[in-house]
Amino acid sequence: EIRRVEDVNQNLSSEEKSRLDLKQELLKQVHETELFKHVDKFLSSVGYEDNLPYVAAKDFSQGAQILSGTELDELCCPETCVKCIK
């Protein structure tokens, strides 16, 4: 989720603020995992460091869709070759 810095504290309900805080904490925890560090190191070594935020966001979104049981927008994420099994 992308927001301008000046918009973060304006016009947000307490529910939205809580949701953003939770997302920030989850992202922090993901960045601290060994898997993330390994993927980051690998992508940097092959010149894809600028794509890491995109790949992470895409996979996080796919994972959320899979866990919630909703239909996926795509069946494959070519950046990571993650395929859904239906």
Automatic annotation (TrEMBL):
Source organism (scientific name): Noccaea caerulescens (Alpine penny-cress)
Taxonomic path: Eukaryota, Viridiplantae, Streptophyta, Embryophyta, Tracheophyta
Domain Phytochelatin synthase C-terminal: 1-86
A Gene Ontology BP annotation from the UniProt entry: detoxification of copper ion
PANTHER family per UniProt: GLUTATHIONE GAMMA-GLUTAMYLCYSTEINYLTRANSFERASE (PTHR33447), GLUTATHIONE GAMMA-GLUTAMYLCYSTEINYLTRANSFERASE 2 (PTHR33447:SF22)
Keywords, in A-Z order: Transferase
Listed name of the protein: Glutathione gamma-glutamylcysteinyltransferase 2
MF terms (GO), sorted A to Z: glutathione gamma-glutamylcysteinyltransferase activity; metal ion binding
Record Pfam families: Phytochelatin_C
